[in-house]
Structure formats: structure tokens, C-alpha cells
Specification:
The complex is a heterodimer of chains A (122) and B (113). Chain A is an all-beta fold and 122 residues long. In chain A, a hairpin with a 4-residue loop joins strand 5 and strand 6. The termini of chain B are far apart. Classes of the chains: A mainly beta (122), B mainly beta (113). At the A-B interface, strand 5 and strand 10 of A face strand 7 and strand 8 of B.
């Protein structure tokens, strides 16, 4: 059974760095083909893809946010960590982690975490 | 605005059929990338509904179907039920000079009348 769960601060101040952790079970990021992404959703708005990390430690980022994002993994702990610098109120959103299935150009998110709401406010 | 365009809202009466469109361009759907659909019930995480244009994961009723043609894709829901009231998102890949990345549609709110 595949599960993912996000954790991190519910409130961050503007200019601070956000660190979120995705703890998963039911698969291993050391297994060939396994990948995990972060996706966010501002209140009442659409989904936005942020970043992805692969079993080989390849990393990919949203073009518009790549200067602010860092994704990493701890295979021994079954965790993926996302860091986002210089937080702004517009970054207020529910942040999801999700497992990826499928090949390049056809990959999709088959399992999602429940999401964690992060509010950016002073 | 989103790279993939969806109507903000659609509605239908119980038992009816509705369709939700997802319009892209030559750098995403038109480039041959697959389209996937997610259902997001109020207050919950998105759930995979259709993958690879027209395939349903185990457990998804066959009332849901997907198709793709040219630079667009569609999600059809037949025999509408009250429990289908949710937001629906399409997802694909976009490849440009700056690289390739996952893209989502802006979402469509389905109201069951």
C-alpha cells in the first residue's frame, strides 16, 4: 500500500525559507523508475507543479521557480525534502507530494499525499 | 494563466452526460504528450481519474472516459451522480526552449444540478 504524507510549518514569515518533508511508504526511491514530485495549490486556484526527484537523484524544477527550489531525498528514511527560499504571501498554498508513474512525457501522479497548508504572513 | 485551458465550470443534471475540454498547443498535447485527468473532491487531495489519455485506474467507474485529438483532450462523464461534483484537472507535459515540465489545466468545477 502506497502512502505519502507531507509535514512542515503551517506558518512562515516573508523572506524566510520553507522546508517541507514528504514521508512515504509502499515503495522505495532506490528502486529503478521511482520518482516523487511536489505540487502546490493556492486557495481556490489551480495545481502548480514544482519539482521532481528520481531514483538516480536526477532533479527537475519548475522553470518559473527553479532559482528558489531545492529538492533532495533520504532513501534510508523514505523521505523527500523540498526547500523554497524567499517566501512571499503569494506562496501561500497547500503543498502536496505525489508519486510519479509512467515514462518521460507521459508520466502522471498515481498517489498523492493529503497536502499541508502553508501560510506566508508576518 | 495555465498552459492548458479548461472551462472554469460545467454543470449537468443527475443522469446526464457532460464533457470537459482541455486545450493545449503544439508544445504540449499537440507534441504527442499524453494527457491525464484528476478529480479533486472538496477539501481533499487530487485523485488520478484517467491516465495516458483514456485509461482508467482500478476502481474508477467506467462512467468516466477520456480522449485526445490534435492539441486537445476531453473528459466525459456519463450518468452523472451527485458524488461527481468536484474540480477536475487535466495534466500533460510541455516542452519549450527552457526545458520540459509538467503542466496542469486551470481546473473545471463540475456542478451536479
Amino acid at each position: 500500500q502506497v502512502t505519502l504524507k507531507e509535514s512542515g510549518p503551517a506558518l512562515v514569515k516573508p523572506t524566510q525559507t520553507l522546508t517541507l518533508t514528504c514521508t512515504f511508504s509502499g515503495f522505495s526511491l532506490s528502486t529503478s523508475g521511482m520518482r516523487v514530485s511536489w505540487i502546490r495549490q493556492p486557495p481556490g486556484k489551480a495545481l502548480e507543479w514544482l519539482a521532481r526527484i528520481d531514483w538516480e537523484d536526477d532533479k527537475f524544477y519548475s522553470t518559473s521557480l527553479k532559482t528558489r527550489l531545492t529538492i533532495s531525498k533520504d532513501t534510508s528514511k523514505n523521505q523527500v525534502v523540498l526547500r523554497m527560499t524567499n517566501m512571499d504571501p503569494v506562496d501561500t498554498a497547500t503543498y502536496y507530494c505525489a508519486r510519479i508513474t509512467g515514462g518521460f512525457g507521459g508520466s502522471y501522479f498515481d498517489y498523492w499525499g493529503q497536502g499541508t497548508l502553508v501560510t506566508v504572513s508576518s | 494563466q495555465s498552459v492548458l485551458t479548461q472551462p472554469p465550470s460545467v454543470s449537468g443534471a443527475p443522469g446526464q452526460r457532460v464533457t470537459i475540454s482541455c486545450t493545449g498547443s503544439s508544445s504540449n498535447i499537440g507534441a504527442g504528450y499524453d494527457v491525464h485527468w484528476y478529480q479533486q473532491l472538496p477539501g481533499t487531495a487530487p485523485k488520478l481519474l484517467i491516465y495516458d489519455n483514456s485509461n482508467r485506474p482500478s476502481g474508477v467507474p467506467d462512467r468516466f472516459s477520456g480522449s485526445k485529438s490534435g492539441t486537445s483532450a476531453s473528459l466525459a462523464i456519463t450518468g452523472l451522480q451527485a458524488e461527481d461534483e468536484a474540480d477536475y484537472y487535466c495534466q500533460s507535459y510541455d516542452s519549450s526552449l527552457s526545458g520540459s515540465e509538467v503542466v496542469f489545466g486551470g481546473g473545471t468545477k463540475l456542478t451536479v444540478l
